[in-house]
Amino acid sequence: MKHHNISKLFIMKIVSKLLIISALIATIHSCQEAPKMIGGFKYETTKKGGEVAKVGEYAYVAITIKDQNDSILQEMTKGPNMPMFKIPANPIVGAQANPIQDLAAVIGVGGKATIFMPVDSLNNLPANIMAMDYITYNMEITKVETEEEYQAEMQRIKDEQEAAQKEVIEVVNADLEIFKVGTSDLIMTTPEGLKYIMHDEGNGAQGEAGKLALVDYYGVFLDGEMFDNSYRSGRPFQFTVGRQEAISGWDLAIPLLKEGGNATIYVPYTLAYGEAGRPPVIPVKTDLVFHVALRTVK
């Protein structure tokens, strides 16, 4: 009887240990669950958000793109450069799927997530990035607006842009007359032949070569006719200084400015679109005048 009780106690201890081990295995298994997927891409939620954007509402998303070594490739985190998405009733599927838009309808205001994008799913990447396995889109939902709030915001921005454009037109017209006379001490000239009138050098980061610059601009011919400007879209033009992503005159002009600065530049055709021009907008051998305002340097 005594030996029977010992055997029964021994068995109960073994069963108890097995139950504990089983519970540990279950816990480990739950921690190693399959990665979350959205739009065919793996993602991780790094911070839970609050209010979630509903169908028909607009989610503003701050995005920082990094390579797999965590180096920043691009930032779209403030101002008109920040992406915004209207939440659709049904997520887009297939080749046009947008995992950022889909995730914007999930994580809520203040929420953060990282999407892992395999480089072979993307186009036009630099060779050094193509050698990597993936890049990451690190996103945060900054705010959500209803249709009414969004329309009011757009109207406010439009009014501000129109007011700014009106001021710029007055400055450009005045500077055109100064350039035509050509004798004012206000006119400065670079060794390459770019002429400029500095209105405000700015006091932020320098627009130096290799930096990403966001520039508001207003471009006219010498007769004052406007051919292009950024105020119509409400978004500054974005380019990397010194990498021929814009005309040569811009690569020379923007390094003269710091954030917050602005100037009017006279760009001879040799520093603009050359002898060929850019038909049908820019005729052959055409000098151009721009008012440029450096908004942001990254």
Average pLDDT, all residues:
88
Task: Give the low-pLDDT segments.
Answer: 1-6, 28-33
How many domains? 2
CATH architecture of the largest domain: Roll
Biggest β-sheet: count, sense, barrel? 7 strands, antiparallel
The total of helices stands at: 5
Class by SSE composition: alpha+beta
**Radius of gyration computed on alpha carbons:** 29 Å
* Series of secondary-structure elements, N-terminal to C-terminal: HEEEEEHEHEHEEEEEHEE
- How much of the sequence lies in strands comes to 25-35%
What distance lies between the first and last C-alpha atoms, to the nearest angstrom?
A: 83 Å
- Subunit arrangement of the protein: single chain
Q: How many beta strands in the DSSP annotation?
A: 14
Shape descriptor reads elongated
Helix content: 25-40%
CATH topology of the largest domain, which one?
Answer: Chitinase A, domain 3
CATH class descriptor name of the largest domain: Alpha Beta
Please give a structural write-up:
The structure is a single chain. The chain is of the alpha+beta class. The chain folds into two domains: 36-145, Chitinase A, domain 3 (Roll); 157-297, Chitinase A, domain 3 (Roll). Helices cover 27% and strands 30% of the residues. The protein has five helices and 14 strands. It has helices at 2-31, 99-104, 127-130, 147-181, 248-253, and strands at 36-38, 41-47, 58-67, 72-76, 84-86, 112-118, 134-145, 187-189, 195-200, 212-220, 226-229, 237-240, 262-267, 288-297. The strands form two sheets. Strands 1, 2, 3, 4, 5, 6 and 7 form a seven-stranded antiparallel beta sheet that branches. Strands 8, 9, 10, 11, 12, 13 and 14 form a seven-stranded antiparallel beta sheet that branches. Strand 3 and strand 4 (72-76) form a beta hairpin. It is elongated. The relative contact order is 0.11.
